[in-house]
């Protein structure tokens, strides 16, 4: 995967050209991967149990809460990406989520997508870890 974003995104240069929703699209997958990895680190369990634990974290309400836990740690660039994601018109209506939570979740996913495509997975993991901490 590293080869893909080095060739296609020129170490972050092409990432700025992507729409906020495109960043959120890939960020959703990155976030899901981080959550599943974390859930699995808690111990082996039947897949349905793992899935239930992951679903408790990968939903608009939980992602919105995570945003507020990491907001103070975001740099100016990450805050700008978050705002772009939050303010993007998605043309979909959330079924099981409050609209505000959904917008915050989209912004958070855009940040994770931006970091991933910019080759900054260490930063994505750092923010994820901060977001998983309970205050």
Automatic annotation (TrEMBL):
Q: Name one GO biological process term.
A: rRNA processing
Domain RNase III: where? 22-119
The answer to whether UniProt assigns keyword rRNA processing to this entry is: yes
The UniProt GO MF terms for this protein read:
ribonuclease III activity; rRNA binding
Which residues are catalytic? 28
Q: What is its EC number?
A: 3.1.26.-
UniProt record similarity statement: Belongs to the MrnC RNase family.
Q: What is this protein called?
A: Mini-ribonuclease 3
Its taxonomic placement starts with: Bacteria, Bacillati, Bacillota, Clostridia, Lachnospirales
